[in-house]
Amino acid sequence: MSWFVKTIWSTSVGRKLVMALTGLFLCTFLAVHLAGNLQLLKQDEGYAFNKYAVFMTSNPLIKTTSYLLYASIIGHAVWGIVLTIKNKKARPQGYAYQNESVSSVWASRNMGILGTILLVFIVAHMGDFWREYHEYGTSTPMETKTYIDEKGETVVYKDLYHEVVETYENIWMVLFYVASMVAVGFHLCHGFKSGFQTLGVNHPKYLPVINSVAFIFWGIIPAGFALIPLYIYFNHI
Amino acid sequence: MNLTLKVWRQKDASSAGKMVTYPAQNISPDMSFLEMIDVVNEGLVKKGEEPIAFDHDCREGICGMCSMFINGRPHGPKQGITTCQLHMRSFKDGDTISIEPWRAKAFPVVKDLVVDRSAFDRIIQAGGYVSVNTGVTIDANAIPIAKDIADEAFDAATCIGCGACVAACKNASAMLFLSAKVSQLALLPQGQVERDKRVERMIDQMEDEGFGSCTNTGACSAECPKEIGQHHIARLNREFITAKISSSNK
């Protein structure tokens, strides 16, 4: 498979393919993650959300996919850094004056900066919830909550819901989260369509479909994410 | 018209350059941009100074030689034209105009505004051709090609290799140039024999020349004097993926 390694590592188009495939896979994760998070809005003291958290951390298929997800985040970041360094080297001396805004949009020129913001957010976000839920390096186990399920049986779940609500009662955490979702929006405003272009999917027949789906990913999904901490904050002050 | 020019002056490839300010006086709005530089150069020669070196040839927008980065954009402020087709009526009296050479590692400055674009020639040599034995003249319609395919191939073939795409791209990527050549030959029956080898070799050569990679900003198409579209880059990507998966090249 040496040709394969050579393609994805040492050709620019190959490296771009890695960016496109990992990026689009991360987009599908966003949709699934939002569907889960929306259960935070249910008025059930966190029953649905905490049950969902158990499913997400115990289902074998989901667990396998999660490893692919971690690999995609790391791969997307590493390949992104390699590409950015190589691209900077392609123009050792810049222009004294360059008018870039007439020929390209801001987000498309700043994917590296936006991506760095997102990486910081992902690390902080996983430190807040993912690490606490898995109890990696935490001094006390996460609190649990007892519910009566649909069948009338008593169930005990780790109370991630409480953790989330407590976090987003802090206005600074809310602002950090919302700002990060704005960065997601800008990143995907270029990234989603760019991924398809790199895969060679660009045709008058299906470009309108890609553009419509792109709006869901750069507009609706980040807005959906951002609304949840705002909802929690304004419901608990 | 009276203008102020800020021009990149560089003695040779190994010297450091700098922006130098020159007045451009009594310029007719009907002059082309290159004619305006000619007038300024005449003044410099009369004063015993070194004239500004710049590339030019046909002066009718088809050779791809002129290559000036004017007011922060390749070929200046107008859409779909080369520097030689830009006229001074596009500027206002009293304007200050900045003029720089194309900036890319793969396009080293030779002198002032002249850059060495032979990297493009080497990319073409790597695969941008069709090998056929020449014999007697073949009838023009011996190989039927659908009108829309011929048009699409022709659109790609309008690339004059000026390098504005590289100059405009934040990564100094040559993907639009490459895509125009690959697209043109991939669409036509004559280009099928070397189809896989072509795209692989041309992309390898592009890497070796030190061009950056495409991040799909679209700046190249927006600044291309022949308005070659982004869909050609998508086709190049498809050609590359197909070649990598299905060709016998290792």
Textual characterization of the structure:
- Helix content of chain A is 72%, strand content 4%.
- Chain A is mostly helical and 237 residues long.
- Chain A has one domain.
- Chain A has a two-stranded antiparallel sheet with strand order 1-2.
- In chain A, a hairpin with a 5-residue loop joins strand 1 and strand 2.
- In chain A, helix 4 runs antiparallel to helix 6 and helix 8 runs antiparallel to helix 9.
- The mean pLDDT of chain A is 93.
- Chain B is an alpha+beta fold and 250 residues long.
- Chain B has two domains: 108 residues, Beta-grasp domain (Ubiquitin-like (UB roll)); 129 residues, Alpha-helical ferredoxin (Fumarate Reductase Iron-sulfur Protein, Chain B, domain 2, Orthogonal Bundle), CATH 1.10.1060.
- Helix content of chain B is 36%, strand content 11%.
- Chain B has a five-stranded mixed sheet with strand order 2-1-5-3-4. In chain B, strands 6-7 form a two-stranded antiparallel sheet.
- In chain B, a hairpin with a 2-residue loop joins strand 6 and strand 7.
- Chain B is elongated.
- The mean pLDDT of chain B is 95.
- At the A-B interface, helix 1, helix 2, helix 4 and helix 8 of A face helix 6, helix 7 and helix 8 of B.
Care to give the gist of this entry?
The complex is a heterodimer of chains A (237) and B (250). Chain A has 237 residues and is mainly alpha-helical. Chain A has helices at residues 2-10, 12-37, 47-58, 60-89, 106-109, 111-134, 160-167, 171-198, 207-236; strands at 144-148, 154-158.
What is the 3D form of chain B? Answer: elongated
Please give the alpha-carbon distance between the first and last residues of chain B. Answer: 61 Å
What percent of residues of chain B are in strands? 5-15%
Q: Write down the overall mean pLDDT of chain B.
A: 95
Ends distance of chain A: 58 Å
Largest interface: A-B, 43 and 48 residues
Question: Averaged pLDDT of chain A, please?
Answer: 93
